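Late entry, flavin-adenine dinucleotide complex.
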Amino acid sequence: MSGIESRQPRVDAIDKVTGRAVYAADVRTSDCLVALALRSPLAPARLKRIDVAVARVLPGVVDVFTHLDAPRLDWTSSSEIDALGAEGLGRAAMADSASAQPAYRPLIDDFIQFAGQWIAVVVAETIEVAREALGHIVFELDQLPFEPAAAIRPGAFFGADMQYGFGSDVETGPTSVSVSANYCTPMQLHQPMEPTATTAIWNDGRLTMYDSTQGVHATRAYVARSLGIPEDRVQVQAPFVGGGFGAKNQIWPHQALAAHLARALGRPVRLQLTRNDMAVASGHRSGTRQQVQLDADAQGHLTRLRHDSHVFTSLHGGFFEPCGLSSLMLYTARRIDVSHHVTRLPIPTPTPFRAPGETPGSFALETALDELAHATGLDPVELRLRNFAERDHYHGRDWSSNHLRDCYRIGAERIGWERRQAIPRSLRRDGCLVGLGMATTAYPAPALPAGVRLVLRHNGSLRVETSATDIGTGMRTLLAQNAASNLGIEISQISVHLGDSDLPEAPTAGRSKSTASVLPACADACRNLQSLLDATVGSGGTLLERMNKSGLPELTVEGRANGLSAGESHSFYSFGAHFAEVELDEKIGRLRVSRVVSVLDCGTILNPQLAESQIRGGVIFGLGMALMEEATRHPQTHRILNDNLADYAVPVHADIPPIDVVFLNKPDPIINDFGARGLGEIGLPGLAAALGNALFNATNRRARSVPFQFDILLGS
Amino acid sequence: MASSEWLFPRTTKAALAELEIPDTTAVAGGTTVLDLLKLGFSSSSRLVDLSRLDMREIAVVGRNLHIGAMVTNSTVARSDLVLQSHPALSEAILMGASEQIRNAASVGGNLMQACRCSYFRATDWPCNRRQPGSGCPAISNPMAGHAVLGTSPHCIATHPSDMAVAMLALDAMVTWKGQDNEGVISVSDFYRLPGKEPHLLSHLPEGALITGVELPRTRAARNSGYLKLRGRTSYEFASASVAAALELACGEVCSVAIAFGGVATVPWRDHEAEATLLGRPLSTEATNEFLDRIMVNADLRSETIHKIGLARGALHHLLERLARS
Ligand SMILES: Cc1cc2nc3c(=O)[nH]c(=O)nc-3n(C[C@H](O)[C@H](O)[C@H](O)COP(=O)(O)OP(=O)(O)OC[C@H]3O[C@@H](n4cnc5c(N)ncnc54)[C@H](O)[C@@H]3O)c2cc1C
Ligand code: SF4
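Prediction complete; structure with ligand written out below:
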């Protein structure tokens, strides 16, 4: 145990707000060229003709590449490359004939799979020239007719069955109430603060890439494979990442393309995605249509939970929203049936987006539970308590720890749940209808193998090194805190070096696993350092004294942690409950979320300040999903209409209510020495449902789709 | 993009002379002009910066409040004179854009701002307003922000300005100067319906500059307000908005002006419909009848039909507030 539970502010906060932190597009090398891409406005189509002659001769333009130039770039496609990238994720589950075809890579051939697909890339001396050149490219497309084929029923994904039915041995009475409805969630765009960029620099046959990625090792593997060179000739650096939310979790073709361009042109190249590119070139969350049926006995015990999800993917990609994940294990039911139906469309490949699956899935499931509570006359909290899963029936394992019932109790106390009236439209304030609602959230707590290296110098300063990335979560700060407390030194003595594929391997930041993977490795490294010093100079004295005594200029040790494997005897999940209060002026359809209380069971909290900000961020995402976020597609061209932040609304500060984040802070006795589970995503699932449930309590009108529409918000 | 020549005339006369030369555009705060350039709109080769011009006064002149064309939106919104005699104007401006944008934006530029239609802004869609005769994808695929009033088969883009809606309800007059002429146009005659030529925004003569606006200081204007409804709490254009100026005598309406934003291709006002409210107490029925009359010819699509309910709610809300004060 390391007692690092403190409100240490981010160690890199000043660097970030003063612009000292160097992001992928900030890297300045002499000679660096800029690459920008031209997007197809429609799909599916054939590129009949493309003329880059005028663009190519503009002063400042170095080269222009289309699919006809792929050989000059040594740019090809193969199933091995596909398997390492974003386009490959989920293809094994889909297992249809399209999954066996080459996945999307831009500039491979004349087939336009989705609107937004890159059909030409300009490389120029400056970004201004590159932009101008794009405007001089002339092309002609033949739009192809499109009829979606029958939906595919994919196999296991995210380690869980996508088509499943099972009975449990729980005892219930006969079914006496049943609710069943369709729920819709929108297509959403990640749009992190930092648009993706890659700066590729070759030196003597070796490539250094500065890339905004959530995973430097995965990027290295994909890029090396694409270039056809050994991985040890590629170094990927992502010391700072300005948010990712999944858009930088998988590896996209453009990351490799930057390296191919730089190699072909013999100069460094910075490939920059614009806001519009970000809507299509690095994934999105697809819209979903889900049907949930809940049957219960007279006491509200679930006799059956059925959750069917209709979701989308691209023509050749594989990722789809696994909406039914929570339905498999979160509640006890005598029978549970989950199915997924995936339709291929001429759209860009969707990708994980903060709490994929659970986010849209929990909107449907947690709204349906509220409908069931209303139908049975049970309090929504009581209904959930009656169906609390004492163990993970789906995996047939006990929870490593699960204090969800405490979350319900504390959340209800904090929001003043006793004020809630079971009969909707009962509460008013200042001429507005007031409603209270709640929902459960849950998210898996995985951990993968990770390594951390420590370099202690004779002056007592310490370097902490790992390839893990800090995408805004606070990993850099947690590592500094961990090393400081384990070694008894000041944080100011420590520098943390992250996001470099030459450093010890750690997993990609995603699926809320970084803390539980990397911190145990850091603790191990600290122990190894102490033992090494013990062996060299014996125990006693401060770290600096012992280092001086050793007479060594520096000492290097590594630590490792193995993470969790599929064969564990327990199920590792984090849990929580959201409670929300909304106020609606139904005459003008003005909805304000007045309060959110989120109570979470994520094991030990290592740094409450960082942890709270993760949960708050998740809550704000959920609020955006419920109130305004929705990307829409033009029906004929399949092009995203609001692929920019002027047209795609995300919450502004004035939309955000006081968010009361409470952590139970009860150590998970099994997961690791800290008792800590990840918490990057759990703030989001359930939030939209909690708001919709509060809205129902206020209005007696049930929002079964998000964002809430004016027909629900406006009274008649 | 070949960089444009920036010119900095010091007098209105000099600026007008520059504007005579073809392929020249005036730039005030630049919050529209530069935004469009960044989106890839073609740039004029010459840009005339108006920031050195002396059009920055707010003053009572005769029976009117005069506001110079180069006064910033923030300055107007916070002016004591405006707050006293035309509160709707201040409210409308403060509900628009962001503080940073309002600090840069000018009165003249705000009146002349470009529409926010997504097809218009992304330069690779056809769009009659951006490229006359190229077509209008919004007709077959409207979005929630498109207009329901004043539409034509060639364009259904909503007029974006909040400020202009308040000015319309406040009977503002736009004063302008050309090389060798000058004139006054009321805001109600200032904008053109899209018709067959949606690229023509206003009746301001080619090459002329707006020099300012004149707002009559009436009792109704003192009791005026603005309400804007939108999908998020700030920093978004109106889904529907309403500006009104109201004077009651013995509980009956003796003067009323009501203008709508966010619903029409130009700031929208109907004097005949207003007349039905005169001489009667303000009642729910009267207000509903008024709104029904406004919307009688609305061009409704499933994407935009919610605007009727929003405009109705906003109108009730605002009139109730003004009737109380
Ligand atoms: C992100 C964003 C959000 C916004 N939100 C809102 C909103 O919610 N509500 C709202 O109403 N507006 C909003 N706006 C628009 C904003 O109000 C306008 O961009 C601004 O008022 C324009 O003023 P400007 O001085 O910057 O004009 P400029 O960009 O300088 O000029 C705009 C146009 O006016 C012409 N022009 C300027 N001055 C004169 C003059 N004196 N005579 C003749 N022509 C002239 C220019 O030639 C140009 O065609 C928003 C803008 C942005 C960028
Ligand atoms: S509505 Fe008007 S601005 Fe929008 S695309 Fe059509 S013509 Fe262009």
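The domain at 447-561 of chain A is CATH 3.30.365.10 (Aldehyde Oxidoreductase; domain 4). Will revisit in the morning.
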